Amino acid sequence: MTFSTCDLCDEHEDKLRVVDPLFADFGGRSVFSGRIATIKCHEDNSLVRECVAEAGYGRVLVIDGGGSTRRALLGDMLAEKAASNGWAGVIVYGAVRDIEIMETIDLGVKALCSIPLKTEKKGIGERDIAVRFGGVDFVPGHFLYADRNGIVVSSEDLLP
Question: Does residue 157 sit within a domain?
């Protein structure tokens, strides 16, 4: 996949929303895009585990962890499961862990930071709802494009 979020902004600025520059790269894939799927959870990755076990069909999982950096919502085992099930990437508005392994996995991963502490499993959260962070609404079914320059979102597919 070859595209640049810079080029997308130059060509389609009126169709894009640019996510605030809050995120660092943690996955083995630095350029990724796909339809958005969402999870909203707080320091509990039970729904993340369920979601990445499903077929991804090239989608990008957007996790609204409320910006909490106290517990990791994604680690190497869930990232590996996501990659093997066809997810293109994961955006975590929160923390991740096992980053030295995660960077070897063919999956785009962007998060606020890393922390070694895992989550508790309480089964709490919501799926497939619009979430908002970084100044942008992430709507299931819309399109997300990410590279080392940043993250942009559109209601329509902008790639040929």
Answer: no
